[in-house]
Every structure is written in structure tokens, then in C-alpha cells.
Amino acid sequence: MSRLEGKVAVVTGASLGIGAAIASRLAAEGAAVVVNYGRSKDAAAAVVERIQGNGGRAIAVQADVSRQDQVVALFDQAQSAFGPLNLLVNNAGVYVGSPIGDITEEHIDKHFDLNVKGLLFATREAVQRFPEAGGSIINISSVVATLPPSGMAVYSATKGAVDTISRALAVELGARKIRVNSVSPGYVVTEGAKDMDGEGQFASYMASVTPLGRVGLPEDIADVVAFVASDDARWITGQVIPVSGGVRF
Ligand SMILES: NC(=O)c1ccc[n+]([C@@H]2O[C@H](COP(=O)([O-])OP(=O)(O)OC[C@H]3O[C@@H](n4cnc5c(N)ncnc54)[C@H](OP(=O)(O)O)[C@@H]3O)[C@@H](O)[C@H]2O)c1
């Protein structure tokens, strides 16, 4: 399918995991994709190479999304490479567990600076640059927003904020034909998730409580993001869309 032909997309945190799959899927649908990365330069280059190898258009742009100045530079580079922006996927995120007794200011800032402030910085830049025809913003949330596991209060709070931002901005930006939605994954096997789950015990547990009987793959999320980004989803805004194999929240 080529539902995104002629569109320009920025995907934050697209060097690894869910973001890399989203970048590839949007490019396969015809979008020119800006593959943002923080530290994983080689991984981002590999994503771009894969997209180009399949006949798509992509560039890698380094920017720490938790830093306002770097986010502005990211969007400037996106615009000079591909022209006006149509799609933003706010995917970059961190998640580290910590019991409440052990949390530090640094732990709180690390999560909120990227997952919430960074998302707002990127959204502000995108909204200023969308054409009159509008645009689509997709925020990668998590089922933890309403189904928080033990030891994840801070991370879960950031994703609760993300869902509220999606609902609030859908109202604020609807008149400008800008749609804002959350796509909310359950557990997905990624580099980051594997780091958190040494022996894979959490993944096994999640598979056992998931109605569809397995854990998620990055492509399970990317396929839904491509739909929400496309005109097929033109009447959907302000929604939190669970993509969790049936895990309910
Ligand atoms: N995996 C899951 O089970 C799961 C479930 C629900 C929701 N989510 C959400 O899905 C999103 C992606 O998760 P994932 O599991 O794919 O994570 P991951 O494997 O850890 O990858 C994280 C991505 O974010 C980028 N990133 C980290 N800090 C950044 C920064 N300051 N600026 C720019 N990019 C940055 C990383 O790039 P560099 O390495 O280049 O810095 C990487 O590309 C997150 O928002 C997460 O909360 C994940």
C-alpha cells in the first residue's frame, strides 16, 4: 500500500525497537521519513539504509529530544531535507523501574524530560510547521498509563500524561485539521524491554496473561501507527488506541 505517498514524517527515537519499525513502515507506505536518534548512530544509519534499499526516502538526524534547542534543530533539518511536515510520531521514551522508596529527582527528571517535555517540544515544532491541510500526531503511550505494574510509578505517570496530552491537543488542534492520538502498546520485545527483563521472566509472564498468547513485536505497533497516520483514520482524533494482544486497561 502507498497510503502515505508525498507525506513527510518525523519519528523520534527511531534507531531501535518500536521507533525503527514505525520508520520502516511509514517509509514502505511512501512517506519520506526523518529517523531521529539520540546515541545509536550506527543503528539509525542501518534503519535509513534498509529504507533506501527498499526504494524509500529517509535521513537520520541526531537530537536529544529532551533538549528544546536540539528539537528545534531536528525539525529545521527535517524541513530542509524534505519540505513541509505532515506527520509526527512521538516515540522516543525511557522506562526504568524503581520502588518509590528509591526514586530520586534524577529518576523523575529523566522520565519526564523525555517522555513528556520532549514530546511537547516536538509537538510544538510540528504544529508550527504543518501546512494548512493539517497533519497527524501519534504519541506512543503504554498500557501502563492505566495498568501500572509495581515499581513503575514514575514511568506510568509519564504515559498517563501522554494520553491526557493527546486528548487535550485533539480538542485544541481539531479546527486546524490536526489529529492527535495515542497508540498504546502492551509489552513489546525491543532492545529496551530486553534490558529491563534480564532472564525474560516478565516477557513469559506477559505472554501468559495476553489473550492472543504471545508478547508484541515492534511491527504489531508499527502497522497500527501507519493506519492512524493515514487518511483511512481521518475521523479518529483524541483517542487512546490499545495495541496489546487483548490485555485490557
Ligand atoms: N517495549 C515495550 O514493551 C513498550 C511498551 C509500551 C510502550 N513503549 C514505548 O514505546 C517507545 C519505544 O520503546 P522501545 O521499547 O522501542 O524502546 P528502546 O528499545 O529502548 O528504544 C528507545 C528509542 O528511543 C531513543 N531515545 C532514547 N532517548 C532518547 C533521547 N533523549 N532523544 C532521542 N531519542 C532517544 C533511542 O535512541 P538512541 O539509542 O539512539 O538514543 C531508541 O531509538 C517508548 O516511548 C516506550 O515508552 C514500549
Task: Describe the 3D structure.
45% of the residues lie in helices and 15% in strands. By secondary structure, the protein is of the alpha/beta class. It has a single domain (8-186, 218-241), classed as NAD(P)-binding Rossmann-like Domain (Rossmann fold, 3-Layer(aba) Sandwich), CATH 3.40.50. A 7-stranded parallel β-sheet has the order 3-2-1-4-5-6-7, sandwiched between helices. α2 (41-53) links the parallel β2 and β3 (57-62). α1 (17-28) packs parallel to α2 and α3 runs parallel beside α4. The longest helix has 25 residues, at 105-129. It is globular.
- Count of helical segments? 8
Give the distance, in angstroms, between the N- and C-terminal Cα atoms: 31 Å
Secondary-structure element sequence? Answer: EHEHEHEHEHEHHHE
Segments where pLDDT lies below 50 for 5+ residues? none
How many beta-strand elements? 7
Small-molecule binders: NADP nicotinamide-adenine-dinucleotide phosphate
Compute the CA-based radius of gyration. 17 Å
Helix content: 40-55%
| Highest-level CATH class | Alpha Beta
The CATH architecture comes to 3-Layer(aba) Sandwich
- Bulk shape: globular
Q: How are the strands of the largest sheet arranged?
A: 3-2-1-4-5-6-7
Mean pLDDT: 97
| The named CATH superfamily | NAD(P)-binding Rossmann-like Domain
The overall number of domains is 1
Question: By helix and strand content, what is the structural category?
Answer: alpha/beta
Q: Strand count, sense and closure of the main sheet?
A: 7 strands, parallel
Could you say what the CATH topology is called?
Rossmann fold
* Amount of beta strand: 15-25%
